[in-house]
Amino acid sequence: MERRQFLSTSLAGSVLALSAPTLSAAPAAKSREYYLHRRYSLLSGPQPKLTEAYIGDALIPALARMGMGPVGAFKLDIGQDTPAFSVLIPSTSIEALATLDLHLAQDDAFLKIAEPFWSAPASAPGFLRSESFLLAAFEGWPHVTPPASAATKGNRIFQLRTYQSPSLRDHVLKVAMFHDGEIPIFLNAGFHPVFFGDTLIGSQMPSLTYMLSFPDMKALNEQWDVFRNDPAWKKMSTSPRYSFEAIVSNISNVILSPLSASQI
Q1: Considering Cα of 17, then 21, then 23, then 28, what sign does the dihedral take?
Q2: Band (9; pLDDT cuts 50, 70, 90)
Q3: Can you tell me the distance from the alpha carbon of 69 to that of 51, in angstroms, rounded to the nearest whole number?
Q4: Measured by CB atoms within 10 angstroms of the end CB, which terminus of the chain is less buried, N or C?
Q5: How many other C-beta atoms lie within 10 A of the C-beta of residue 152?
Q6: How many whole angstroms separate alpha carbon 38 and alpha carbon 47?
Q7: Sequence ranges of the domains in the chain
Q8: Dihedral pair phi/psi, residue 80, rounded to 5°
């Protein structure tokens, strides 16, 4: 019953987002996406090399054959439990993401290349554990938006932030806060958002996750200073609608860099 309640309320947050006004600076409208965010916990040694080869040589080409992309592939640089890789897979079909591994298991070309990772023995596994999260794109930012530097494999880093809320009501309010003005404040501060997603299935719910791209840490720090000092943010963050209590109870904040095969 509790699981159904969490899912129902997270969906309610997504429904709320559907009614939000379209943001003029947001990506051009197209079908709303869903995201499978998969995180691989690794051990130092041969595991990272094996897993990176699997992601770049087997997984991303197979996803392209399924019409999924652009796919993000990242290495955890700053955060807990390194080494770790993350993969972000966008699709307009929830079913396609939920049944992804079943379809991969039927792809002979994928299985041939993925064999060293896919069938790694218990004595030398390809990873320690993997976690998967299913997200719904915010209506105000309906699809993944890679930075321009992704096309040229230029220098870029990514900040992945997850906001947990203390109650289902507060989670819905935080999603609404992004649509009421927080996303435009990000844009005015010079940020490049990659995606905003409401967690539909995952751990530590209710929560939302978003990703920002920067050329380097200097730009990251400078743009956050602009954001914090924006009068519009100061006004919004002190509005009684959102400041009556702490509607975000915990923030996960990690820094990622792209793997060589990343399309984001």
Answers
A1: positive
A2: very low
A3: 19
A4: N
A5: 9
A6: 16
A7: 2-258
A8: -80, 155
| pLDDT greater than 60 at residue 118 | yes
Q: Which two tokens stand for residue 133?
A: 């999260």
The tokens describing 7, both together, are 């899912």
Residues 141, 20: Cα–Cα separation, whole Å: 11
Token readout for 156 is 């870029």
Using the structure block, give the residue that is written with the tokens 């023995």: 121
Residue range 161-171, pLDDT digits in tens: 999 999 999 99
Q: How many CA atoms lie within 13 A of 260 on its CB side?
A: 8
Q: At what angle do helices 2-18 and 168-177 cross, to 10 degrees?
A: 20
CATH 2.40.280.10 fits 2-258, yes or no: no
102-125 average pLDDT score: 96
**Residue 55 tokens, joined:** 């992601």
Quick one: CA dihedral 15, 21, 26, 30, positive or negative? positive
